[in-house]
Amino acid sequence: MTNRSRTPDFMPTLSPGRHRNPRKGACFMEMASFLAGERWSDHPQCTHPLLAAMAREINDRVGDRARQDLVPMIPSVVGLNADDKRIDAWIAREAALTALPVVSMANQRAVAVGILRSEAMLAELDGLTPGYLSPRARQTLDAVPDAEQWAREFISTALSRRDAFTTRGAPAVVHLSVAGISRACVDQPERMLVDLLRRTIEGVAQLTQRTQASSLSSDSAISDGAPANEILRNEPPSTVSKSTPGAVATPVSRSSEWHNDIESSVRWDTSA
């Protein structure tokens, strides 16, 4: 069994981008691949793909000082994977709920679409009433009524598929949310990103454990969308570290074109 409770005594300083080998440096997920005993890669099989995408994005968007706060989390993502579409929807929803209060007005519409799409996916997978919104989502959307109205009108005129949301929509929501937070005109946006990754790892760990447990029982829905599990649905996981201000986020070349067309990004999960 892989021990994910301890960080190795010696770890290289994390740096942005992809690296051909450890001598060139390492990003968050490349170190995870090393700890898992996999081939050196920033796309290891040991971690849920969308969680790994969020980790890569945050690794690349924070500065050197804040990036080192990610190091203790690396062992926690090794072996953190499960075949449950609730996980994709939950990760996307957590990212969007974190982003919506702080992103620019230009991004609020697309992020609001992400919240509504994620909530709809969770409700569908858990057999809840169509249109159900968690109290946390309702409170967050209430603060930006114009963005919510636009998002609902957009969704009402667009086709959507569950598989398209998982493969395209959820990654787009995470990408847009992380990028928006990194550019937000708020105190310590890098700390928000570090804490977002920490909460997401903890939440995915809980969902993964319940997914594995459900295979041994006949219990009903296990995701954060289930009424019996409103703690996960309404609140982020509890741990939020005390912050040390980080350096200014560095530009990221691999995603620099994302911000050019907001509406096209939310259409990624609507193709028939």
Question: What are the defining features of this structure?
Answer:
272 residues; disordered C terminus; globular; single chain; disordered N terminus; mainly alpha; 12 helices
Please outline what is shown here.
The radius of gyration is 18 Å and the shape is globular. With about 270 residues, the chain is an all-alpha fold.
What does this structure look like?
The chain starts with 27 loop residues before the first helix and ends in a 6-residue tail after the last helix. Helix 6 crosses helix 8. Helices cover 53% and strands 0% of the residues. It is mainly alpha-helical and 272 residues long. The protein has twelve helices and no strands. It has one domain.
Query: What would you call the shape?
Result: globular
N-to-C SSE series? HHHHHHHHHHHH
Q: Tell me the major beta sheet.
A: none
Radius of gyration over all CA atoms, rounded: 18 Å
Strands, total number: 0
List the helices and strands and how they pair.
Elements: H1 28-35, H2 49-61, H3 64-67, H4 74-77, H5 85-99, H6 105-126, H7 135-142, H8 145-156, H9 162-183, H10 189-214, H11 230-234, H12 262-266
Helix pairs in contact: 2-9, 2-10, 5-6, 5-9, 5-10, 6-8, 6-9, 9-10
